[in-house]
Amino acid sequence: MSISVGLNCPACGGAIQISEGENVLNCNYCGSLLWAEGDAGVMTVAFRNVQGRESVLRVTEEWWRKGLKARDLRTKGKLLECYPIYLPFWSTTTRVAGWICGYEERHHTDRNGNTRTERIPKEEMVLHDYRYTNIACDPGDLGIKYLRNMMGEASFADFESIPTFESTTSKDDMVEMSKQNALNDARSDANVPHITFEKVTAIPKQISQIFYPVWVVRYSYGERMYMATVDGVTGKVLSGRAPGDALYQSLAMTGGTSAGGLIAAAGLVIGLGMGEGALAIVGLVAGVVILGFTYRFFRHGSEISEGDFDDKRSSDLGKELRKGLKFNMGGFRI
Fold this sequence. Notes:
Elements: E1 2-8, E2 15-19, E3 24-26, E4 33-35, E5 43-46, H1 53-64, H2 73-76, E6 78-109, E7 115-135, H3 171-190, E8 194-221, E9 224-231, E10 237-243, H4 246-273, H5 277-300, E11 303-306, H6 313-322
Parallel strand pairs: 5-8
Antiparallel strand pairs: 1-2, 3-4, 6-7, 6-8, 8-9, 9-10, 10-11
Helix pairs in contact: 4-5, 5-6
């Protein structure tokens, strides 16, 4: 049966009719796509913690040996405490529907060197669901902001024995953030370089709160304290801070300085010798970039951070160096 909602269409003011159980409808007068949200609340689910203390410590020690961390961390690191907690996360699904119109430019050069620009019209239909997660409390120094895993056994049994962080952020704020992110991602996916017109709508389809088990491991190295977090479902390291190695810093400084200087000099010599100014500029820029990465690693490489930290300079730089300086759905039940 059809029930009358005591609201009017925000586009034309016409009366809205919606069938029971539906939340997406088209206005009968102007055809606008509308989303009707009730007050049923937010579905809440908790994943069972399936990791034990011994397995978490073993995974942490294995993590110590990876990357550019101190080589003697495994022998000199001292485990101080290891305990599980529950962290709340928002999980949303947002549908974006509509059209994005515009054009892309293509440049053509003839034999005489004359260049003309051609505009190619583009019209893309957008209809896609986007899923986002975001932590619903202040994570402090844990370095966790997003939920990577959506698979697990749903259970609230652990709540009586494991400390649980309370949610401190608003459902409405998360919905609004998801809508903005979905619109931005939809524009990017449409791949219309120059947008001249768009009519797209972000429709919140689902929001839930997930309490997720995380193990916190704190340890010391020398006179400093460090930490790591381990996923209570998958057993993988989520984030952490670790001491860097002085030898890696020295080698990076020496090798990076030499490589950056040689590349910059070679680019200038070869480029200017061949009369190719662009090649000279590319070589100079590449050398400066390498020198910049080298300096940053030498300055910040004393501590390696992995995860959603705001100051991930040393971690990101370490990944670039290891690469050779090359330039979100599972089901669950309650």
